[in-house]
Amino acid sequence: MKNLIIYRTAFAVLLFTFLSCSDDDTVVTPGTLESKIDEYLDLNQSADQPGLSIAVRRDGQVIYQGNAGIARFDVDQTINSNTQFRTGSISKPITAIAIMQLVEEGELNLSDKLLTFYPELPASFEEITIDHLLSHRSGLLDYIDDNSDLAALNDLNMQDALDFISSPSSGFENLVFEPGTMGRYSNTGYVLLALVVEKVTGSSLPEYLDQHIFHPAGMNNTFVISEDEHLGDNGENYALSLGNNLNVLGFNSLIYGASGVVSTASDMMLFVESLLGNEIVSQETLDVMTQSRGSVPNIETDYGLGWLTGTGTYWHTGFITDPNDFWHSGGFDGYQTVLSINPDLDLEVIILTNGGNDTKEKMWDILELTRNHYK
């Protein structure tokens, strides 16, 4: 299972039956964006099934917010703009921003070695730098995808994760390649980045993000799953996976950094506004983060520092990405999410879903619909 699952499905080929084509096959897209998305949802999303929360921002203004489907069946809760979802790998650019804030403050350098902070890790990690971890060029195995016993991750906390990676019996000392020479998506790297933030600041990553990103941006309904907090502990306005499960995969890991951020479509729009307004990192830093460090073949994309980039020729090129785009999708335990930023169109799209593969298809469809409306 990959936290980041990105591919174009055959369903997308059938997209937008309500759009008409002229004789020269040019797609005609009359109507407002709101009417198009609402019509798509009316045709494809049942009110009594897990669904989606959608927010679209253009030219600095939120121009669409809409929701459809069930957040959780146990209390007959429908999805609204403040429904909280696990965001999966959208957590990665947020963790990366925490690292880059520390770089801006002179507390870290991208060239710093991981073992400087955690010398108890295997000696084979000697050449791994902060830059390698951010760009998935460390050569590290993945604690989820390379793990044959996912049940062992149940209730695993951050110290447990560090002990596991450090243990000779775990096999993590065997790197897939020499750091910096290739790309391979690894959730492990972002768990280690969270631990670096904690070592440098003396605060847990959930505390740090709340103080330096969430609170300054006004993201009052956003938090990180922590070692003493499970999704659903704080109330009922949470979207459960497939509407009725906390842990479809059979484990409820408390590890964060690679995932763990819980948020809403409204809060994620506030995050985008703060990010693009250079309130949480400078424009210079954001430019560095969104430049490709190279291909990451196992997820079919180029990657910068915490962000997927629109460069390269992949399944999503011209479909949901353009060359100057930066974005991230997430998949965790039935939750499927995407945050897309297109600077050329001045367009940002957030879609959070809890319906597994069904709503994942709808997520890509709505993203493509939105982009095509403004092209």
CATH class: Alpha Beta
Helix count?
Answer: 10
In CATH, the architecture is: 3-Layer(aba) Sandwich
Q: Quote the beta fraction.
A: 15-25%
Order of secondary-structure elements: EEHEEEEEHHHHHHEEHHEEEEEEH
Query: What oligomeric assembly is this protein in?
Result: single chain
* CATH superfamily descriptor: DD-peptidase/beta-lactamase superfamily
Amount of helix: 25-40%
Can you give keywords for this protein?
eight-stranded antiparallel beta sheet, disordered N terminus, alpha+beta, 375 residues, single chain, Beta-lactamase
Describe the overall structure:
This protein is an alpha+beta fold. The chain has a single domain (10-20, 30-45, 54-374), classed as Beta-lactamase, CATH 3.40.710.10. Helix content is 29%, strand content 16%. It contains ten helices and 15 strands. The strands form four sheets. The protein has an eight-stranded antiparallel sheet, with helices on both faces. Strands 7-9-8 form a three-stranded antiparallel sheet. Strands 1-2 form a two-stranded antiparallel ribbon. A hairpin with a 4-residue loop joins strand 10 (295-296) and strand 11. It is globular and about 60 Å long.
